[in-house]
Amino acid sequence: MIIYDDYSLKSLNTFHIDVTCRHYTEVKSVDDIAEILSHPGFEDTDKLILGGGSNILFTKNYDGIIIKNSIPGIEIIKEIDDNVYVKASAGVVWHQFVLWCIAHNLSGLENLSLIPGQVGAAPMQNIGAYGVEIKDVFESLSAYHITEKAIHHFQLNDCAFGYRESVFKNKFRNQYIILDVTFRLNKTPVFHVNYGDIRNTLEQMMIQELSIKAVSDAVISIRSSKLPDPAVLGNAGSFFKNPVISKHQFDQLITVYPLMPNYPQQQGDVKIPAGWLIEQCGWKGKVVGNTGSHKSQALVLVNYGNATGPEIYRLALDIQQSVKEKFGILIEPEVNLV
C-alpha cells in the first residue's frame, strides 16, 4: 500500500474540483484498512473515505488523509426459493454491479441503472430512482469501525433507511468504512415501470416482451437524455433532495400553483420535485460564472470547466434561497459538502 502526499483530487470527484489532500491512499482489502488505520503517523489525522466521488463537493483542500475504497468482488451467497442473495464489495462500480445482476437474470436493481458511484455508497445514501430504493432489496452489510478497529454487521432495521438517509449519514457519520453489501434479488422479475417516463420509453423502444434488461435500457436512455455525463461535464447528479412537505402546506401551494407536480406519501405528506421548484425560479439553463443549472435538468449543478467548490456552493445557496422565498420550501443538499 502506497501513501501519497499533497495528492490531487481533481480526477477523483465528478465535479472535477481542483483540490488536494494532505495524504492519500487506496485500500483493496480489510487488511489494507486495518494497516492504514493503525499507522502511527495517522492516528490523530482527519480521515475521509472516498468511493466514486460522485456525491461530494470539495470546497477546500482536505487537511487529512483520504482513503479510497477499492475493495473488489461480487459473489452469490445463497439461494432461497425465488430469492438470490448477492454480496458485492464496496469498491465495485455501482452500474457495473447492476449490469452483472442483469446478466445473471437477477431482478431488483434494474431501475437503479446508470447511477454513478460505488456499491459502498448505496446504503449510505439509500440511493433510489424510478420507484425503487436500496432498502427495498437490502439484506445486510459489513462495516469496519474506524476507532474500534472491528467489523460490525448491520441488518435492514439497523440502518434506519429514509429518503436519501441512513445511520451512516447521521448517527454513525464518519465512524465506519463499509466493506460489502448483500442484496436480496429475485429470480422472477417484479417490474416497476409506472414511475417517470419508463413506460413511455419502453413503448418508444418498441419492446415486445418486458424484461429486466429492457427496463434497464429504458432507464439508461432516460438518464442519458436528461443528465450530463460527469466525464464530459463536471456534476454530481441531483444536487438537492426532493422536499417532502405537509399536506396543509401543499393544499395552500396548489391553489397558487395548480400545475405543481406532487407525489403523496404514505404518512400523508407530499413530495415535490426539487427540479420543478428550481425551474420555476428561473434557474434552469442559467450560467453563473463557471457554473450553472443544467439546461436539461435544473436539479443538476454543473462545472463548466474552471469552477471552484465555493463557487458551486454559492450557486447552491442562491438557488436554495430563491426557492425558499418563492414557495416557502427549504430544499436540502443531497451532495456531501467537504
Structure description:
With 338 residues, this protein is of the alpha+beta class. The chain has 3 domains: 4-69, 2-Layer Sandwich (Uridine Diphospho-n-acetylenolpyruvylglucosamine Reductase, domain 2); 74-186, 2-Layer Sandwich (Uridine Diphospho-n-acetylenolpyruvylglucosamine Reductase, domain 3); 234-337, UDP-N-acetylenolpyruvoylglucosamine reductase, C-terminal domain (Uridine Diphospho-n-acetylenolpyruvylglucosamine Reductase, domain 1), CATH 3.90.78.10. It is 24% helix and 27% strand. The chain is built from 8 helices and 20 strands. It has helices at 30-37, 94-103, 121-125, 198-204, 212-226, 247-256, 274-280, 309-327; strands at 4-8, 20-27, 47-50, 56-57, 62-69, 74-80, 83-89, 128-129, 132-133, 138-145, 150-155, 176-186, 234-238, 244-245, 263-264, 270-271, 287-288, 291-293, 300-303, 336-337. The strands form 6 sheets. It has a 5-stranded antiparallel sheet with strand order 6-7-12-10-11, with no helix packed on it. A 4-stranded mixed sheet has the order 1-2-5-3. α4 crosses α5 (212-226). The chain starts with a strand and ends with a strand. The model has no long low-confidence stretch (mean pLDDT 91).
